[in-house]
DNA sequence: GTCCACATGTAACTGGTTACATGATTGG
DNA sequence: CCAATCATGTAACCAGTTACATGTGGAC
């Protein structure tokens, strides 16, 4: 039950239409909670039906015509409730680690190329995050309400740093490894 | 499409019944690919129907009676194919980061306690991984086919290390932060 | 012989994915 | 007026989740 809350957060930061939300998810919020436009439209309809958001009054909506939403007090209250509520961490799921474990059984043939590709992707993502950090959080002047956002970005940077390092180690290991079956 | 391959890997490591698999997923493989017993039974039925695995011949199965499976050549081939195939990384999804971003909008009230709880959970997981490392990979004697398994374990250790560090930083931040709305 | 743990399984639901459909607006 | 693009939406499917059902065998 996280997508509706991701949308509420985005709409509180700025009222938007479905497509605008989709684009914003492709950038900032999508870095840790991705969503397609179909998901977003479906969820916007639910949130509106539930009385959490409404279409901006100035507009009468029709298919094919842009419809912007804003958050109602009930929506803000629900978001605050959800943010504070205790939630168990979801069990980890990582395909790459699974594949490495499988490779330990059926052999590593063909894996190396894809590891290189992943390494490249993570390097690029890391560069993107670091660029955002330089731009939005220049050293020495974090406004108090920006501190949390910076913290979230740091998580992204550190995670990508971890993956680039781990993939490099893995590839080095492959160099040594006698080619199995 | 990862669960069937996780099961094939587990069955190649050792032929097992559904419940045994469930228990093994709760331990080792579940650390990066969790599954419930319902998922596992459903998937075992599919894999058997597809000719990838079979019940060990010695047994005639009945409801309530244990049924062990082993991997057929087609299953091993499919696993090797899947391991080598190129796959895009799945977009990141992390509820905790989402909640922090929401907190930047609706305030941090109530969040701190849950962050502490998560920190404790990650510390415990880290300790568990390190215990496994001490036990299964004593320094200086990695057999070649253990190197990949060790690499996977290192990923788990480094990820948990990251989370404990990040959560500590976050909590420190909270100490400083003027309590918002 | 009854209860409990073991073991396998069914059913209904939810969230995410993929493919496609439809209407409005704009540039040529 | 036609094609391309913007914008919203429908439908079918699949994997994961939750709740419950059914059968077996051993402990008491």
Overview of this structure, please?
- The structure is a homodimer of 181-residue chains.
- With 181 residues, chain A is mostly helical.
- Chain A folds into two domains: 83 residues, Arc Repressor Mutant, subunit A (Orthogonal Bundle); 82 residues, no CATH class.
- In chain A, 64% of the residues lie in helices and 5% in strands.
- The longest helix of chain A has 33 residues.
- The interface between A and B is large, with 73 and 72 residues.
- Chain A binds a DNA duplex (28 and 28 nucleotides) through helix 3.
Q: What is the mean predicted local confidence, pLDDT of chain A?
A: 90
Query: Can you write the helix and strand succession of chain A as a string?
Result: HEHHEEHHHH
The N- to C-terminal Cα distance of chain A equals 44 Å
Radius of gyration of chain A: 21 Å
What is the count of DSSP helices of chain A, taking H or I runs of 4+ residues?
Answer: 7
Considering DSSP H and I runs of 4 or more, what fraction of the residues of chain A is helical?
55-70%
Question: What is this entry, summarized?
Answer:
Helix content of chain A is 64%, strand content 5%. By secondary structure, the first copy, chain A, is mainly alpha-helical.
